[in-house]
Design brief:
InterPro entries: DIOX_N, IPNS-like_sf, Iron_ascorbate_oxido_reductase. It comes from Ilex paraguariensis (yerba mate). Keywords: Iron, Metal-binding. Pfam families: DIOX_N. The chain is mostly helical and 143 residues long. It has a domain at 1-38. The protein has helices at 16-29, 42-65, 68-80, 109-118, 130-134, and strands at 5-7, 34-36, 120-121, 124-125. The strands form 2 sheets. It has a two-stranded parallel ribbon with strand order 1-2. A two-stranded antiparallel ribbon has the order 3-4. Helix 2 (42-65) packs across helix 4. The longest helix has 24 residues, at 42-65. The protein is flat. The model is unreliable at 120-132 and 136-143 (pLDDT under 50).
């Protein structure tokens, strides 16, 4: 069985119901899916990934590592295995929506996130209709 591949360009057309059903099926059966024709350039996606990673390292990593739940988990891992918590595979998730305060000390973060929200194409700004009809932009970046 292959990972679901969904053509996002059909979301707001005649095949909306079918596309939504494919998204639901991908979420229910796989937990994820691959999107084609989503209208976001590879260059912008790479910049978003970089600024989210930079933001985590600059602003959030230390607080995460020093939080009480992580300290307790670290003690548990070290007690129950020969490994250390920092050697385990971790994921960090950023969830940003239009009404969030995006203030950040990370250079380029605010601009990049706002650009993803309005989707600039070269110097011409355009709305894809997807964010307007379906949801404000949400970003997920993994570490």
């Amino acid at each position: 069985m292959a990972i679901p591949v969904i053509d996002f360009s059909k979301l707001n057309g005649e095949e909306r119901a079918k596309t939504l059903a494919q998204i639901a099926k991908g979420c229910e059966e796989w937990g994820f899916f691959q999107l084609l024709n989503h209208g976001i350039s590879e260059e912008l996606l790479q910049r978003v990934k970089k600024v989210c990673s930079d933001c985590y390292k600059l602003e959030r990593e230390e607080g995460f590592k020093n939080s009480t739940p992580i300290k307790l988990l670290s003690e548990l891992v070290e007690r129950k295995s020969d490994d250390k918590l920092e050697n385990l595979d971790w994921e960090d998730v950023f969830l940003l929506s239009d009404d969030n305060d995006w203030s950040s000390k990370t250079p380029g973060f605010n601009t990049c996130v706002q650009e993803l929200g309005i989707l600039k194409n070269n110097d011409d700004e355009y709305e894809t209709g997807f964010f307007v009809l379906n949801a404000p932009p949400a970003l997920v970046a993994y570490e």
